[in-house]
Design goal:
By secondary structure, the protein is an alpha/beta fold. Among the domains are: 2-200, 3-Layer(aba) Sandwich (Rossmann fold); 457-610, no CATH class. 61% of the residues lie in helices and 6% in strands. The chain has 27 helices and eight strands. It has helices at residues 14-22, 65-78, 95-112, 123-128, 135-142, 157-165, 183-197, 202-215, 220-239, 241-258, 265-283, 286-302, 304-317, 326-332, 336-342, 349-358, 368-378, 391-418, 439-473, 485-492, 494-497, 504-512, 519-527, 538-546, 551-563, 568-578, 581-610, and strands at residues 2-8, 39-42, 49-53, 83-91, 116-121, 146-148, 383-384, 389-390. Strands 2-3-1-4-5-6 form a six-stranded mixed beta sheet, with helices on both faces. A hairpin with a 4-residue loop joins strand 7 and strand 8 (389-390). Helix 8 (202-215) packs across helix 9, helix 15 packs parallel to helix 26 and helix 25 packs antiparallel against helix 27. It is elongated. The termini are far apart. The chain crosses the membrane at residues 214-233, 274-299, 353-379, 391-414, 453-474, 555-575, 587-610. One of its GO terms (molecular function) is GTP binding. Keywords: Membrane, Transmembrane, Transmembrane helix. This is Ferrous iron transport protein B. InterPro entries: Fe2_transport_prot_B_C, FeoB_GTPase, G_FEOB_dom, Gate_dom, P-loop_NTPase.
């Protein structure tokens, strides 16, 4: 089967065109972590031809590790005898920027005897503003066919299919003056070609400047930023709640009908507790991942995401991060899993690594049941200032702020201690033009991302859930969690938690919370013999209060859960996204040790003041 390469610079609409030509849901964007992925699919109109979508790069002179890999793939593909021709996509609204890369591609393809067809995308934008592109003149100057298209509307796509259907010239590729032209001269030639044949871009620049004067203004830009980020946060934290409830309801409905059909008690308990309750605990995050990916895709495709990164860069730079770290950190307050996915937008590997370090310390929604239980048990439900200030609300705000502060503090310290190791790339940001997002590709990519979470992370999560279930069920078949293997392990590790003033029961609850942080509440309820503690905490709160557990122990638990990386789902996704199990293991051990030491300090200090 013959192959056709599709290549272009970032933000040129390449993925939209690829999906239109192939009908696939695959997306290859200029995101760290997937820029080295190669999308491929047969053309819908020409099933015998395979279209290969290469990652977007600004130049064949790579400056980042991702671009080096992408350029290496392209150079290897030019030596592949199955590759018959190359489609080079350019942004007709930003001709000079695109032409420099295009001239490099044409030159290298001529050297390898591969014909090139240049596709001038965004022609619909030019038509909208009454601008013209001299296609014939540009084609003659490049010695290469140039076809005006619109990946968004489909205009000109039939001409692309017709061009690909024609047989290749037997005489081979015509060698032009570009064959031996160095990059320094190509840059100047791109500038001249854009001035001769390109549209008057001052109209487009003025339009973008008017919008930037609002979105980047010190006052209106700040207000717009907070409104947009609030809507993003609401979409992750609130708007996905109905879908998450629906997933939980579907799992409960399925469990009620499947479990009674199982005659074997062990099989029934395994299906109910390990499969529907255990594995189902991570499936409820799928709507959050879908919503986050969709909203971020809209912001990115519209051009606003780059503006948000620019606004946040200065304050985050103090902590060794970049402006592109803001969205992942914000997303982490809902769930660390979609936040790690969102970190793909960070092009610097070092900054991305620092962002990975900060995300698990953001106060995610899974910590909320634990915080609610401990605050209700240890902080009095009293108010001050005429009811305007509640101590429990203040405690909740404090523990949320504490987690965020710890995350930024750690990245700031690591970036300063590591020095230049994490200053690997400068903060270079392209401000793309404002555009109406392409909803279909974004929707497809959101579905793919949710599917990727289920298929990739599900294996690890199921393994850990199965292990915890086996330890908690045997040897007494779930009759008494305290007498199970898990309870026995709790008594073995009890000395580890004694410095925090905790006994084996809390140790077991901490251990099971590795499957999901909120499991801590349900485990304590099971050990104390309280049914439905994860839904109604009042009896469990009263039991903890009557047990005379020290205030220092409660505060130590709050601090411990604020810092410890107690989530197998997060570790699984972190391992996959960073391509490093070692990083996930080091972060788990490091944050556990830090949480443990911080808990001991809080317990001791509280004991000195309270007794």
């Amino acid at each position: 089967m013959s192959k056709i390469i599709l290549i272009g610079s970032p933000n040129s609409g390449k993925s939209l065109l690829f999906n239109r030509l192939t009908g696939l849901a695959h997306k290859v964007a200029n995101f760290p972590g997937i820029t080295v992925d190669i999308g491929s699919g047969n053309l819908q109109a020409l099933p015998d031809k395979q279209l290969v979508d290469f990652p977007g790069t600004y130049s064949l002179q790579a400056i980042s590790a991702e671009e080096e890999v992408a350029v290496g793939y392209f150079e290897n593909a030019l030596c592949d005898p199955e590759v018959e021709q190359v489609l080079c996509l350019i942004d007709a609204t930003r001709l000079e920027k695109s032409l420099y890369f295009t001239l490099q591609v044409i030159r290298d393809c001529e050297r390898h005897g591969k014909p090139v067809t240049v596709l001038a995308n965004m022609i619909d934008v030019l038509d909208k503003h009454g601008l013209d592109l001299d296609v014939e003149g540009l084609s003659a100057a490049l010695y290469t066919p140039v076809l005006p298209i619109s990946g968004r509307t489909g205009k000109g796509v039939d001409a692309v299919i017709a061009a690909l259907s024609r047989p290749l010239p037997e005489a081979g590729v015509t060698r032009s003056h570009l064959t031996e032209t160095p990059d320094a001269i190509l840059r100047g030639e791109a500038h001249q070609l854009a001035r001769r044949f390109g549209p008057r871009d001052d109209i487009l620049i003025r339009t973008q400047h008017r919008l930037d004067s609002f979105f980047l203004h010190s006052l209106t830009g700040g207000v717009a930023f907070f409104v947009i980020m609030y809507l993003l946060f609401q979409s992750i934290f609130t708007w996905s709640a109905p879908a998450m409830d629906a997933v939980e309801g579907a799992l409960a409905w399925s469990a009620d009908r499947v479990v009674p059909l199982l005659g074997n008690q062990v099989a029934a308990d395994f299906t109910a507790d390990a499969l529907f309750s255990g594995v189902g605990a991570f499936l409820v995050f799928v709507p959050q991942i879908f919503v986050l990916t969709f909203i971020i895709g809209l912001l990115e495709d519209s051009g606003y995401m780059a503006r948000a990164a620019l606004i946040c860069h200065k304050p985050l730079r103090f902590f060794g991060l970049t402006g592109k770290s803001f969205i992942p950190l914000l997303s982490g307050t809902a769930c660390a899993i979609p936040a790690i996915y969102a970190a793909r937008a960070i092009d610097s590997p070092g900054k991305r690594l620092l962002t990975y370090m900060a995300i698990p310390l953001m106060p995610c929604s899974a910590r909320l049941p634990v915080y609610s239980l401990l605050i209700a048990a240890f902080i009095p439900a009293q108010t001050a200032l005429g009811g305007l200030l509640g101590w429990q609300g203040l405690a909740m705000f404090g523990i949320y702020f504490f987690g965020m502060f710890c995350g930024l503090l750690i990245t700031g310290l690591v970036s300063r201690v590591a020095g230049q190791r994490y200053q690997d790339l400068p903060f270079v940001l392209e401000l793309p033009p404002y555009r109406v997002p392409g909803f279909v590709p974004i929707l497809r990519n959101s579905v793919n991302r949710a599917r990727h979470f289920v298929t990739k992370a599900g294996k690890i999560i199921f393994t850990v859930t199965l292990l915890i279930w086996v330890l908690g069920y045997f040897p007494n078949y779930g009759a008494d969690l305290g007498q199970s293997w898990l309870g026995q392990i709790g008594r073995v590790v009890e000395p580890l938690f004694e410095p925090l003033g905790l006994d084996w029961r809390y140790g077991v609850a901490i251990f099971t919370s590795f499957a999901a942080r909120e499991v801590f509440v349900g485990t304590l309820g099971t050990i104390f013999g309280i049914e439905g503690a994860d839904e109604n905490m009042v009896p469990l709160v009263e039991h903890i209060q009557s047990s005379q557990l020290a205030l220092g122990s409660g505060l130590a638990l709050l601090v411990f859960f604020a810092i410890a990386l107690q989530c197998v789902s997060t570790l699984a996704i972190l391992s996959k996204e960073s391509s490093s199990r070692g990083l996930a293991l080091k972060m788990f051990c490091g944050y556990f040790l830090l949480a443990y030491v911080a808990g001991i300090v809080v317990y001791q200090v509280t004991g000195w003041f309270v007794g």
